[in-house]
Design brief:
Elements: H1 3-22, H2 25-40, E1 50-55, H3 62-76, H4 78-89, H5 104-131, E2 137-142, H6 149-179, H7 183-196, H8 203-223, H9 227-247
Parallel strand pairs: 1-2
Helix pairs in contact: 1-2, 1-6, 2-7, 3-6, 4-6, 5-8, 5-9, 6-7, 6-9, 7-8
Length: 255
């Protein structure tokens, strides 16, 4: 391969990364920033406002609401399929970012330990930021009480985990390294984007997810596995979504 072809290949990969982000979580980061600016301009403190993650679409029409939730989840996973296609086309496949079933036991243990450490620390950090007035009140779920509510919350948690960890962790760091970026720059960029699309929650949401992104990115470059982070993220969100639905109105420490 000539040097010109090599440079063209890097430019092509860089354009690919930019387009993937702009149709997925990069676009979410832009919208989250605008949402934060709207919250800051409202005249109310951030802690007096709320942001809901999973909410009903048609509360009085449960079957239509269920259809909407499932369509939302399905469409949100399209960028994951796009990344899988692009990696397969470049001859690597999802195995190239460690998203396969080759290490099920090790991946599961790592994911569970990460979920316990990050989940507990994250909850304490959120409560501290909320008390300091630097975060909105985050409502993980406000679905109507229907037979399908808990399964939909679990599916939503799995969707979040797949989208974020496959696209912003595994794919992004892998591609940026191929473009020629150093590990530290790739990890920092991944973490900044992760924090960015959580800006709608406030400054605490940004900072907490930035730190989480730095930790996940550092571990990904060591393990070269995406699966543990998908497992960890899914467990954290399942506990948050289902736990909030169960505990809401029954404990006084939950905003």
């Amino acid at each position: 391969m000539t040097s010109d072809a090599h440079r063209l290949d890097r430019r092509t990969l860089a354009a690919e990364v930019a387009l993937v982000l702009l149709v997925s979580l990069g676009a979410s980061a832009i919208r989250a920033l605008l949402y934060l600016l709207k919250s800051l301009a409202s005249g109310q403190s951030l802690s007096a406002q709320s942001a809901t993650i999973v909410t009903s679409f048609t509360p009085n029409q449960p079957w239509l609401d269920l259809t909407y939730q499932l369509v939302q989840i399905g469409l949100a996973l399209v960028p994951v399929l796009l990344v899988a296609h692009l990696l397969r086309r470049s001859g690597e496949g999802l195995r190239g970012i460690g998203f396969d079933g080759s290490q099920p036991g090790r991946d599961a243990v790592r994911g569970i330990v990460l979920a316990a450490v990050v989940g507990g620390t994250g909850l304490a950090f959120y409560l501290a930021m909320y008390a300091a007035g630097l975060n909105l009140r985050v409502v993980p779920a406000s679905l109507e009480d229907a037979w399908w509510s808990l399964p939909v919350l679990i599916l939503a948690a799995l969707e979040n985990a797949l989208l974020e960890e496959v696209v912003v962790l595994g794919y992004l760091i892998h591609r940026l390294r191929q473009v020629g970026w150093g590990s530290k720059s790739a990890i920092l960029t991944s973490a900044l984007i992760r924090g960015g699309y959580h800006l709608y929650q406030g400054f605490g949401g940004f900072l907490g997810n930035l730190v989480m992104g730095l930790l996940f990115g550092w571990l990904f470059t060591r393990w070269r596995r995406t699966v543990p982070f998908v497992i960890a993220h899914a467990l954290i969100d399942i506990v948050a979504f289902v736990g909030y639905a169960v505990l809401r109105g029954h404990v006084d420490w939950l905003p």
